[in-house]
Design the sequence.
């Protein structure tokens, strides 16, 4: 295969990866980090640019999506936004799901609002746990002990359960790890908010597609230009 053909194949593979993961990772990142939507989305796009430049290496990772999120997190810390040290509750502006009922939208917004009241470490831990990551994976990602993961998760669960008026009826084993379980009402509430947010982001993206002059499409093109310029 010629160099041009290999480059075309890499581009197509990365395009498919981006299209498949962008909205989902945006929703996850907004729940995990987001008080400044623009800042979070900018950092995520920069992480995708880095992934494109290193695509052969990134695609060989156990989790290319995890690589993007880790790179994004490092950028948020390095670029001076200092989201960790400037914690304060604020309203996160996000697009509403067009298919949700008024009650579902109200519940999702209440959940997102409650998340913003958590200290950054607690918020990260509980969102990561809700996404299915283990104590060991969260520990490695955040550079804290598994005991620290458990402590932050316990505190986050306690506060969210109180703020969202969720009955604390889940057993201790379930409380220790946010495993996907219909028996865990907090997991169900957080998962519903994530699904609501993802649906809204997807609808927003579809609304932008005909003009292709703003949003991710323009940002995506900018990223590809940078990537090719560094090959």
Sequence:
């Amino acid at each position: 295969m010629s160099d041009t053909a290999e480059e075309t194949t890499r581009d197509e593979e990365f395009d498919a990866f981006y299209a498949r993961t962008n909205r989902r990772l945006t929703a996850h990142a907004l729940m995990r980090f987001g008080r400044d939507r623009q800042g979070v989305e900018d950092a995520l796009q920069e992480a995708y640019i880095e992934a494109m430049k290193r695509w052969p290496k990134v695609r060989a990772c156990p989790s290319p999506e995890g690589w993007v999120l880790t790179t994004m997190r490092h950028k948020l810390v390095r670029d001076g936004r200092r989201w960790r040290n400037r914690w304060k509750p604020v309203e996160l502006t996000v697009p509403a799901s067009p298919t949700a009922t008024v009650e579902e939208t109200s519940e999702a917004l209440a959940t997102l609002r409650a998340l913003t009241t958590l200290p950054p470490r607690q918020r990260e831990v509980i969102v990561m746990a809700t996404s299915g990551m283990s104590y060991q994976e969260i520990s490695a990602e955040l550079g804290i002990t598994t005991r620290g993961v458990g402590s932050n998760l316990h505190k986050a669960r306690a506060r969210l359960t109180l703020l969202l008026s969720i009955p604390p009826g889940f057993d201790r084993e379930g409380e220790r790890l946010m495993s996907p379980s219909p028996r865990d009402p907090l997991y169900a509430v957080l998962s519903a908010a994530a699904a609501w947010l993802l649906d809204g982001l997807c609808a927003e993206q579809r609304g932008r597609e005909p003009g292709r002059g703003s949003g991710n499409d323009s940002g995506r093109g900018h990223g590809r230009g940078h990537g090719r310029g560094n090959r």
User: Anything to note?
Assistant: The chain has two domains: 7-80, 93-207. The CA atoms of residues 96 and 186 lie 21 Å apart.
